Amino acid sequence: MGGGTAGWLTACYLAKAVNAVDPRSVQVHLVESADIATIGVGEATFPSIRGTLSAIGLDERRFLIGAHATYKQGIHYRHWVRPPGTPGADHYFHPFNAPSQRPGGPELLPYWLLGAAPEGVSFADAVSMQSTVVDHARAPKRARDGDYQGPMNHAYHFDAACFARVLSEHAQETLGVVRHVATVERTELDEQGAIARVVTKEEGELTADLYIDCTGLRAALIGGAMHSPFHSRADVLFVDRAVALQVPYDRPDAPIPSYTISSAQEAGWIWDIGLQTRRGTGYVYSSRHTTDERAEEVLRSYVGAAGDGLKPVKVKFEAGYRPEPWRKNCVAVGLSGGMVEPLESTGIALIELASYLITHLLPGDTGDMESAARHFNEMMTARYDRIIDFIKMHYCLSQRSDSAFWVDNRDVTSIPATLQEKLAKWKLRPPHRLDFVADFEMFLTSSWQYILYGMEFETDLEPMRSAYPHMEAARREFAMIRRAAAGALGDLPGHRELVEQMCGETALEKSA
Question: Which helix (H) or strand (E) holds 323?
Fold first, then answer.
């Protein structure tokens, strides 16, 4: 129930996995209302999206054209450590490439901490060539590389409304999904409290074995009918509003950054996402620390004259999740199950995870879903808690004290005990994969490292210096990464150049 990215991506994944195109198999039906539109403010994704789109069999070029998509190689953080105009670095980069680690070579993070890298070079710049690639507006792949393949780890930016349309077409044309354009007026439960049927205005009663709630923040099934409680984390993550503008480029050939830009502001941060013909921008802010009017003023000041006359999209939300997103025969996917905030693009990644879990936990006998529900709820709750720690780390490590928002984010009472424990350990040693339980983590160890040291966190390894005797080898490795980055610039095309080539080749094929 519900279309948009959550509904159609879940439908595609399930339908492909169960071979729904065969009428003898499990059938997937999607109900969406013609009265509820998908908001296309611009979406950013995780690298996992490549595996998901490949798994459902969606051609990369068709996806690029239909979703107005571009490539994303990481996140560029501006003014998160300190306010504009303050001495010190004004930005850092969170690349998608893992730190370089050649077989037999030293792990580079301890040596970076001990000063083996050139002075003033950030951790991300020292251990990965990706920041050099994006700084020179290069793409993560070549046109000759296979679908969703390339030498640089990457994800995508796209228009959410257009993406949903591409998925809808693919689901119906290729995967056997049946679409119902209908508005659900009420949900009826059986004697055991499970959903018996949904009653629509246009098609009357619709029944199923499993009902997947993709109705967004309305949570019409999981919240409205099943009364699964919502666990707020607004005490940890303060932002709860967004105002967005779709801004045209100043010229058709304007460069497209292959990363999300996140610029810290007085009461939150502004996203800036480059699509093919426009930018998606938005200010995510705390209503406790500013007004809606001031927030729009800040966003318009950021985009300048390009935003004149444009009508903003406004969204209200609350950070948190449902500890029981699967109840009886109803499971929530997407915003109906919870929302953190868009800082690290976890929204669609959580949809991907939920789709994967439902597919592989679904029992052969759909009359007994209790075990699958328990497993699903445990996995999703664990992911949310760890994501919240990761997002909070961006805020609580800031040195900014120019507004109450940033001061309040450093208040120890707003920092989860689990995050406090991690940070205390990491003062004496860097983050290690043993600090994380892989199945419960959304972010790789390297992502924690990139953010931690991008925010200029200090780990004192000096007492352990003698445990790291390979300083010269590490220096050679850092130099090799710089040389490899220079070589990559000659091998990788410009970002806009690649997008236009990929889209143009498909257009030529169709005309032929």
Answer: none
Contact 343, 80 (CB under 8 A): no
Closest CA to 273 of 75, 95, 4: 75
Q: What tokens appear for 185 in the block?
A: 């007026």
Q: Identify the CA nearest to 114 among candidates 463, 448, 483, 481.
A: 463
Q: How far apart are the first and last CA of the chain?
A: 39
Pairing mode of beta strands 231-232, 330-332: unpaired
What are the tokens at 7? Answer: 């509904």
CA distance 77 to 359: 36
Q: 367-423 pLDDT, tens per residue?
A: 678 999 999 999 999 999 999 999 999 999 999 999 999 999 999 999 999 999 999
CA pair distance 510, 512, nearest whole angstrom: 5
Q: Angle formed by the axes of helices 4-18 and 346-361, to 10°? A: 30
Tokens 């058709």, located at residue: 252
Distance CA 369, CA 377 (A): 12
Q: Is 483 helix (H, G, I), strand (E, B) or coil?
A: helix
Q: Convert the pLDDT of each residue in 321-330 to its tens digit.
A: 999 999 999 9
What does the CA dihedral 163, 165, 168, 170 come to, rounded to 10 degrees?
A: -70
* Band of pLDDT at residue 511, cut at 50, 70 and 90: very low
Q: Annotate 327-384 with three-state secondary structure.
A: ECCEEECHHHCEECCCCCCHHHHHHHHHHHHHHHHCCCCCCCCHHHHHHHHHHHHHHH
- pLDDT tens digits for 287-304? 999 999 999 999 999 999
Which two structure tokens, joined as six digits, stand for 27? Answer: 């059938």
Query: Quick check: 512 pLDDT over 50?
Result: no
Given phi > 0 = left and psi -120 to 50 = alpha, else beta, which region is 103? beta
Q: What pTM, to 2 d.p., does this model score?
A: 0.96
Q: Give the integer Cα–Cα distance in Å for 391 and 397.
A: 11
Q: Are strands 178-181 and 29-32 parallel, antiparallel or unpaired?
A: parallel
Q: Write out the two tokens for 239.
A: 């932002």
- As annotated, the active-site residues are 72
| Beta carbons within 8 Å of 301's beta carbon, 6+ residues apart | none
The total number of residues written for the chain in this structure: 512
pLDDT tens per residue across span 15-55:
999 999 999 999 999 999 988 766 555 589 999 999 999 99
Phi and psi at residue 362, to the nearest 5°: -60, 120
